[in-house]
Design brief:
The complex is a heterotetramer of chains A (about 575), B (about 220), C (about 200) and D (about 90). Helices cover about 65% and strands about 0% of the residues of chain A. Chain A is mostly helical and about 575 residues long. Chain A has a single domain (about 20-579), classed as Cytochrome C Oxidase, Chain A (Up-down Bundle). In chain A, about 65% of the residues are buried. Chain B contains three helices and ten strands. In chain B, helix 1 (about 15-45) packs antiparallel against helix 2 (about 60-95). By secondary structure, chain B is an alpha+beta fold. Chain B has two domains: about 15-95, no CATH class; about 100-220, Cupredoxins -  blue copper proteins (Immunoglobulin-like). In chain B, a hairpin with a 2-residue loop joins strand 1 (about 100-110) and strand 2. Chain C is an all-alpha fold. Chain C has one domain: Four Helix Bundle (Hemerythrin (Met), subunit A), CATH 1.20.120. Chain C has helices at about 5-10, 20-50, 55-60, 65-90, 90-120, 130-160, 170-195. Chain C is globular and about 55 Å long. Chain C starts with a helix and ends with a helix. Chain D has about 90 residues and is an all-alpha fold. Chain D has two domains: about 1-60; about 60-90. Chain D is about 75% helix and about 0% strand. Chain D contains three helices and no strands. The longest helix of chain D has 25 residues, at about 60-85. The radius of gyration of chain D is 17 Å and the shape is flat. The termini of chain D are far apart. The chains are: A mainly alpha (about 575), B alpha+beta (about 220), C mainly alpha (about 200), D mainly alpha (about 90). Bound molecules: heme-A (2 copies), dinuclear copper ion and copper (II) ion (CU).
C-alpha cells in the first residue's frame, strides 16, 4: 500500500512466484487485463440476462418469462416481472452494461494489455496501483451484487438516477439498494481513475527508444484520450454523487426542492460526465478497428495525424455538448441552441475518422478473417448510431424523440457497436497474443453473421417504435391505447433479441474451446507491425527479452522499402541499415 | 420510417416534422454514400493473388483533400441543420404567442392534476376547476400550460402535438400549443417517476369551439 | 538476467517527458481532483447566487474557528514543504520534525472542525436545515476527508522516516506534499466562500 | 530537483499570513461587493503563492501547467454554463 507510487524501476520482481502472486494478486499488466476480462464477461452475461427479462416483459407483459421461474418472490412472481422490478432491471441493465461491461472491456482489458506492449515497456508505470485498480473494481462489483439483495430492493431510478426520485427513499421504496448503487459506481470511478493515471503516465514516460508520440499506434492515442477525458469529466459527477449520497443518508437537501435544492443540478453534473463517457467508450473501440483495418487491408492508415487531431478535437468538444440530454428537462431555452450546435458539429471530427477508415480500404488488399469482419461491423453499425445522433442532437426534433425508443435505438447502435462489435473484434484479433492460440475461424464467422443480422433486426425496429411515440422505461406498453398497434414490433424485437443472446453462446464456446484446443498461434499470426507482435505469444513476464528500438510508425504495410507487405516498427529498414 | 409518426395536430408540429425530414434526407444520403463506397471497396479491393496494396498514407495535402473536401460538406450540412433548427426552436420555445387560455398541469405520482382557471382566467382562485388526467382545450386557440410537480420529475408528453416538457419539482415551467383538430389524444408521462410510471397517462380532449363552449357552460353554469 | 540495475539503465533509455513518473501521476490525480472540487464549488456558487438570502445563514458560522483553521492549514503547508526541503538536504532529523509538525497541524485542523460541527449540530443546524447547510457540510466534509487522507499518508511516511526505511523512496515526501498543498489550496477558497462572504 | 533553486519558504508563509489578515480586514470594513472582489482576488493570490512555490510549479515543465490549467478551464466552463439555469432563471 505504501509503495503504490513506486516506479517500476524499483519494483523488479523475481521470476518465480506462487499461484496467488501470479494469478490473483499480480502486478503484471497482462494478468490484470485478463482479470478485467473475466469480470467484464461475467457482467456481460448478467447484463444480457437483464436484457432478456426486459425484452420478455415488453413483448409479453404480465406473463411468465421462460427460465426465470427460479427468481424468488420479492423480485418476481413465478417468472412475472412486477413494475417496480422492471425499473430495477433497466437500472441494473444500464449500469452493468455501461460501467461494468463497456468500461472494463474496452478500457481496462485492451488498455492494460496493449499499452505497455505497444509502446515497448515492461509494465505499467505503477504496477501496484494497477493491481489496486482491479481489486477496487472487484469490490465495486461485489457492492453492486450485494445491492441486488438488500431489503427494499435494488436501485430503480434508471441508470441516470435522476433526483428527487433517487434522492429520497419514499419515492421508490428503495433504501439501501440505492445507496449501495452509488457506492458501487463511486468505487468503479476510483478504479478507472487509477487506470487512467496509469495509462497516461505510462504512455508519457515509458516508451521504448524511438517510440515518439507520432509513432504510437492509434489505439494508444485513443486509450489515453479516453483516459484523459474520463479523468477530467468524472470529477464533477463524483462531487454530485457525494451530494446524492448525503441527501439519502444524512438528509441534506442538495437535490430536494422542499429544502431549497435543485434537482436539475444533478442532471447537469451527470451529463457533464455522461456525454464524455460515451466517447470514453467509443474511442477505444475506434482504436481497435483502426488497428485491425490496416492489418487486413495491408495498407497504412490513411491520415494518421488528422485522425489524432480529430480525436483530440472530439474529446474537447465532448465537454460542451452535455445539455443535449436535457433539451426538454426545463433548462433555459436559450441554452439549448448553442448546445445543439456543438452537438451536431461533433459529427465533423467523427466524420473524418470514418472517412479515413474508408480511405484506408481504398486500393487495399483486403481479406476477411473474423476480426476484420467485426471491425467492419463496428464501422457499419456505428455509422447508423452516429447518424441518428444527429436527429436527437437537433433540439426541436429531440422534443419529440427524447425519452422514446428512438433514443434507445440510437444508443444501442452506438454502444453495442463499440462494446460488442468493437470488443469482439479486439478479442478475436488479440486472442492469439493473449492466450497463444488462435480462435476458430468458422465459429467466428458464424458468430459474426448471426450477431450482425440479429443485432439489426433487434434494434432497427426500435427506431420505428420511437417514431411511433413509444416511451422508454415503461414496463407495459399494452397499458397505452396508442401503443397497442405497435405491439407486434415489440414481439418481433424480443424474438430477435432472444436469438441474439443465444447466438452469443457460439462465442462462449469458441472462446473456451480455443483457450485449450485452439491452433498454436506463434508470435505474429496476422503479420502485423506493432510491437506486441514482436514478442512471443503470450508474452513473457515483463514482455520483452530486450526492449525493442523503434524505427518507424506502426502502419508501414506494403511499403516500397521492402519486398514483404509488412515492416514491423522495430525492424531495421533499408535506411537504418545504410547508416 | 417517418411515416410511423402519429398524426400531427399542432401548429408547430409541421415545422418539427419537416426538420426531421430534412435530417432524414441528409443523413440518409450520407448513409447510402458511405455504405455504398465501403461495399464497393470491399468487393473491388479484396485480396487477389500477386497484387500488392497501394502504399498511400494520406500525408500530402492532395491526398488529405480526399478527407477535407467531404469534411467541408459535412460541416456545411451541419450548419444548415443547425440553422433550420434554431429557427424552429426559437419559434417554439422563445417567441411563444400570447395565450388565449391558461391551464395548470401538476404531475404527481402517478397522475396528472389539471386545473382550469375558470371565468376569471386566473389560476389559484375560487372558481378553479380541478380534474384528474383530462385536459380539455378548444381547437385553434393558443393554450399555455403551467407545469408543476408535487413530488418527482414527470414529463408532459403529447405525441400528436410534438410537445414534450419535463415537469420539475420546485419550478414552474410554461409550455404552449395550439391544436388544430378536435379529438381525443394520449397524454402519457415520459419520464421515469417510480413504479407507477408505466401507465401514468391522461388524455387531451380537443373540442370544437361550440363543443368547448358547452363544456364550459356545464362546469361554470353561471359564468358572468 | 534482468536485475534492478539493468532495468534502471534500460528505463533511462526510454522515451519520456523527463518528468518523474510518480510526479506525473500525482499531478494527473490532482487534475481530476481539481474538477471534483471545481464542480462542487461551481454548484455552490450558482445555487447560492440563484437563491439569494444566504448571508444570514452563513452568519451563523463561527468565523473565528475557521480563521484559526486557515492559519493552521497554511502553516502546515509550510512545515510540509520544509520536510521536503529536509529530504533534499538529506537531513533526516529535520524531516521527522517537520513531518511530525505537519501531522500535528492536520490533526488540530480536524479537531477544530469536529468541534465546529458539534456546535452547529447542537444549535439545530443539521445538514437537512436548508441547502446552505447541505453545502456547508458537504464541502467542508469532503475537504476534511481529504485532510484525513493526507494525515494518514503523512503518518505512514513519518513511520518510515522513524525507521529510516524512507531512504529509497524519499521522493514520496514530495508527492505527499503536492497532495497536501492541494488540499490547502482548496481550503484557501472554501474559507472565503463559506465564512467571509 | 533541477538546479536546486529554492523559494524562501518562510517568506512565502509570512506573505500568506499577511494576505489572510488582508482578506479578514476587508470583510470587516469594506462594502460588500468590493470586499467580495478583494477577498477572492486575495484567495487567488494565495493559491498562486502555494502552487508556484510550495508545489514548485515555478520549476516545472509546461506539461504540468497543462495539468492545472485544463481542468480549471473545464470546471470554469461547467460553472459558467450553469449560470443561466440557476442564477438567471425566473
Ligand atoms: C458510445 C456511445 C455513444 C456515442 C458514440 C454517441 C454519439 C452521439 N450521440 Fe448519443 N447517446 C448515447 C451514447 C452515444 N452517443 C447514450 C447512451 C444516450 C442515452 C443516455 C440515456 O438517456 O440513457 C445517448 C443519447 C443522445 C442524445 C440525447 C437524446 C435524448 O435523450 O433525448 C443525443 C442528443 O443530442 C445524442 C447525440 C449524439 C451525437 C450527435 C453523437 C455523435 O457523436 C455522433 C457522431 C457521428 C456521426 C454523425 C457519424 C459519422 C459522420 C458521417 C458519416 C458524416 C455525415 C454526417 C452528417 C452530415 C451529420 N445522444
Ligand atoms: C453497452 C451497453 C448496452 C448493451 C450492450 C445493451 C444490450 C441490450 N439492451 Fe440495453 N440498455 C443500455 C445499454 C446497453 N444495452 C442502457 C444504458 C440502457 C438505458 C437504461 C435506462 O433506461 O436506465 C438500456 C436500455 C435498454 C432497453 C430499454 C428499457 C426501457 O427503457 O424500458 C431495452 C429494451 O429493449 C434494452 C435491450 C437490450 C438488449 C435486448 C440488448 C442485447 O443486445 C443484449 C445482448 C447480450 C449480450 C451481447 C451479452 C452476451 C454475453 C457475452 C457476449 C459474454 C459471453 C462470453 C463468455 C462468457 C466467454 N436495453
Ligand atoms: Cu410520471 Cu412517469
Ligand atoms: Cu450525449
Amino acid at each position: 500500500m505504501s509503495n503504490i507510487l513506486g516506479d517500476v524501476t524499483q519494483g523488479t520482481h523475481p521470476e518465480k512466484k506462487g499461484f496467488w502472486r501470479t494469478y490473483v494478486f499480480s502486478t503484471d499488466h497482462k494478468v490484470i487485463a485478463k482479470q478485467y476480462l473475466a469480470l467484464s464477461l461475467f457482467w456481460a452475461v448478467l447484463g444480457g440476462f437483464t436484457a432478456y427479462l426486459i425484452r420478455w416483459q415488453l413483448a409479453h407483459p404480465e406473463t411468465a418469462a421462460p427460465g426465470a421461474g427460479w427468481i424468488p418472490e420479492p423480485f418476481m412472481y413465478e417468472g412475472v416481472v412486477p413494475p417496480e422490478f422492471y425499473n430495477v432491471l433497466i437500472t441494473m441493465h444500464g449500469t452493468i452494461m455501461v460501467f461494468f461491461v463497456a468500461m472494463p472491456l474496452l478500457l481496462a482489458v485492451f488498455g492494460n494489455y496493449l499499452i505497455p506492449l505497444m509502446i515497448g515497456a515492461r509494465d505499467m508505470a505503477f504496477p501496484r496501483l494497477n493491481m489496486l485498480s482491479v481489486w477496487v473494481f472487484a469490490l465495486a462489483s461485489l457492492v453492486l451484487l450485494i445491492s441486488l439483495f438488500v431489503p427494499g430492493g435494488a436501485a430503480s431510478a434508471g441508470w441516470t438516477g435522476y433526483p428527487p426520485l433517487s434522492a429520497r427513499a419514499i419515492y421508490t421504496g428503495v433504501n439501501w439498494g440505492m445507496n449501495l448503487w452509488i457506492v458501487a459506481i463511486a468505487l468503479e470511478f476510483a478504479a478507472f481513475l487509477m487506470g487512467g493515471i496509469n495509462f497516461l503516465t505510462t504512455t508519457l514516460n515509458m516508451r521504448a527508444p524511438g517510440m515518439t508520440l507520432f509513432r504510437l499506434p492509434l489505439i494508444v492515442w485513443m486509450q489515453i484520450t479516453a483516459g484523459v477525458v474520463f479523468m477530467l469529466s468524472v470529477g464533477p459527477l463524483i462531487a454530485g454523487a457525494v451530494m446524492l449520497l448525503l441527501d439519502r443518508v444524512i438528509g441534506t437537501t442538495f437535490y430536494v426542492p422542499e429544502g431549497g435544492g435543485q434537482p436539475l443540478l444533478w442532471q447537469h453534473l451527470f451529463w457533464f460526465f455522461g456525454h464524455p463517457e460515451v466517447y470514453v467508450i467509443l474511442l477505444p473501440a475506434l482504436g481497435i478497428i483502426l488497428e485491425i483495418l490496416p492489418v487486413f487491408s495491408r495498407k497504412p492508415i490513411f491520415g494518421y495525424r488528422p485522425i489524432i487531431y480529430s480525436t483530440i478535437v472530439a474529446g474537447i468538444l465532448s465537454f460542451i455538448v452535455w445539455a443535449h440530454h436535457q433539451y426538454v428537462s426545463g433548462i433555459d431555452p436559450r441554452l439549448a441552441m448553442p448546445f445543439s450546435i456543438t452537438t451536431i458539429l461533433i459529427s465533423v471530427p467523427f466524420a473524418l475518422i470514418v472517412f479515413a477508415m474508408i480511405a484506408t480500404l481504398w486500393k487495399g488488399s483486403i481479406s476477411f478473417p473474423t476480426p476484420m469482419l467485426f471491425a467492419l461491423g463496428t464501422l457499419g453499425v456505428f455509422l447508423i448510431g452516429g447518424l441518428t445522433g444527429i436527429f436527437v442532437g437537433s433540439a426541436p426534433v429531440d422534443i419529440y424523440f427524447h425519452d422514446t425508443y428512438f433514443v434507445v435505438a440510437h444508443f444501442h447502435y452506438t454502444l453495442f457497436s463499440a462494446v460488442f462489435f468493437g470488443g469482439f473484434a479486439g478479442l478475436y484479433f488479440w486472442f492469439p497474443k493473449m492466450f497463444g492460440r488462435m480462435m476458430n475461424e468458422t465459429l467466428g464467422k458464424i458468430h459474426f453473421v448471426l450477431t450482425f443480422i440479429l443485432f439489426n433486426t433487434t434494434f432497427f425496429p426500435m427506431f420505428f417504435l420511437g417514431v411511433g411515440g413509444m416511451m422508454r422505461r415503461i414496463a407495459n406498453p399494452m397499458q397505452y391505447e396508442f401503443l397497442q398497434p405497435l405491439q407486434p414490433i415489440n414481439v418481433f424485437i424480443t424474438g430477435s433479441a432472444n436469438l441474439l443472446l443465444i447466438s452469443q453462446g457460439i462465442f462462449a464456446i469458441n472462446f473456451f474451446w480455443s483457450l485449450f484446443r485452439g491452433r498454436i498461434a506463434g508470435p505474429n499470426p496476422w503479420q502485423a507491425n506493432t510491437l506486441e507482435w514482436s514478442t512471443s505469444s503470450p508474452p513473457p513476464h515483463e514482455n520483452f527479452h530486450k526492449i525493442p528500438t523503434v524505427y518507424r510508425g506502426p502502419y508501414e504495410y506494403s511499403s516500397p522499402e521492402t519486398a514483404e507487405d509488412w515492416l514491423p516498427q522495430n525492424q531495421l529498414g533499408l535506411e537504418e541499415v545504410k547508416k | 420510417m417517418l411515416s410511423w409518426l402519429p398524426e400531427n395536430i399542432s401548429t408547430y408540429g409541421g415545422d418539427i416534422d419537416s426538420l426531421m425530414y430534412h435530417i432524414y434526407y441528409i443523413t440518409g444520403v450520407w448513409f447510402l454514400l458511405t455504405y455504398g463506397v465501403i461495399i464497393v471497396f470491399l468487393l473491388r479491393y479484396r485480396r487477389q493473388e500477386g497484387q500488392k496494396a497501394a502504399y498511400v498514407r494520406g500525408d500530402s495535402l492532395t491526398q488529405a483533400s480526399w478527407l477535407l473536401v467531404p469534411l467541408l460538406i459535412v460541416l456545411a450540412l451541419d450548419l444548415w441543420i443547425d440553422f433550420q433548427g434554431s429557427e424552429v426552436w426559437a419559434k417554439i420555445k422563445i417567441d411563444a404567442p400570447s395565450s388565449d387560455l391558461l391551464v395548470g398541469v401538476t404531475g404527481k405520482q402517478f397522475n396528472w392534476e389539471i386545473a382550469y382557471p375558470g371565468p376569471d382566467g386566473k389560476l389559484g382562485t375560487a372558481d378553479d376547476l380541478e380534474m384528474e388526467n383530462e385536459l380539455h382545450v378548444p381547437v385553434n386557440k393558443v393554450v399555455h400550460v403551467i407545469l408543476r410537480s408535487k413530488d418527482v420529475i414527470h414529463s408532459f408528453f403529447l405525441p400528436n402535438l410534438r410537445l414534450k416538457q419535463d415537469v420539475m419539482p420546485g419550478r414552474t415551467i410554461e409550455a404552449w400549443f395550439e391544436a388544430t383538430k378536435p379529438g381525443r389524444y394520449p397524454l402519457p408521462c415520459a419520464e421515469l417517476c417510480g413504479f407507477g410510471h408505466s401507465g401514468m397517462e391522461g388524455s387531451l380532449i380537443v373540442h370544437s369551439l361550440d363543443e368547448y363552449e358547452k363544456w364550459v357552460q356545464k362546469n361554470w353554469p353561471n359564468k358572468p | 538476467m534482468k536485475d534492478a540495475l539493468n532495468m534502471k539503465i534500460e528505463s533511462m533509455t526510454l522515451t519520456g517527458t523527463g518528468i518523474p513518473s510518480g510526479k506525473a501521476g500525482v499531478w494527473c490525480f490532482l487534475a481530476s481532483e481539481i474538477t471534483v472540487f471545481g464542480g462542487l464549488i461551481g454548484s455552490y456558487l450558482v445555487v447560492r447566487l440563484g437563491s439569494g438570502g444566504w448571508p444570514e445563514a452563513s452568519a451563523h458560522l463561527s468565523f473565528s474557528l475557521a480563521l484559526f483553521n486557515t492559519l493552521v492549514l497554511l502553516t502546515s503547508s509550510m512545515t510540509m514543504v520544509l520536510a521536503f526541503d529536509a529530504v533534499e538536504k538529506g537531513d533526516s532529523k529535520k524531516l521527522r520534525t517537520f513531518l511530525f509538525l505537519t501531522i500535528l497541524l492536520g490533526l488540530v485542523f480536524l479537531g477544530v472542525k469536529a468541534f465546529e460541527y458539534a456546535g452547529k449540530l447542537a444549535h439545530g443546524f443539521t445538514p437537512g436545515a436548508g441547502v446552505f447547510w447541505s453545502f456547508y457540510y458537504g464541502m467542508t466534509g469532503l475537504h476534511a476527508l481529504h485532510v484525513l487522507a493526507g494525515v494518514i499518508v503523512n503518518i505512514i511516511l513519518f513511520m518510515e522516516a522513524l525507521g529510516n526505511a524512507l531512504k529509497p523512496n524519499e521522493h514520496r515526501v514530495e508527492l505527499a506534499g503536492l497532495y497536501w498543498h492541494f488540499v490547502d489550496i482548496v481550503w484557501i477558497f472554501l474559507f472565503p466562500l463559506l465564512y467571509l462572504t | 530537483m533541477e538546479g536546486k533553486q529554492h523559494p524562501n519558504y518562510f517568506l512565502i508563509w509570512v506573505w500568506l499570513m499577511v494576505l489572510v489578515v488582508v482578506s479578514v480586514v476587508a470583510s470587516l470594513i469594506l462594502p460588500k461587493s468590493l470586499a467580495s472582489f478583494l477577498i477572492f482576488a486575495v484567495a487567488g493570490i494565495k493559491a498562486l503563492l502555494v502552487i508556484l512555490n510550495y508545489m514548485h510549479l515555478k520549476y516545472e515543465k509546461p506539461l504540468i501547467y497543462a495539468f492545472v490549467i485544463v481542468p480549471l478551464l473545464f470546471a470554469l466552463i461547467l460553472t459558467l454554463l450553469l449560470f443561466p439555469d440557476f442564477v438567471f432563471h425566473g
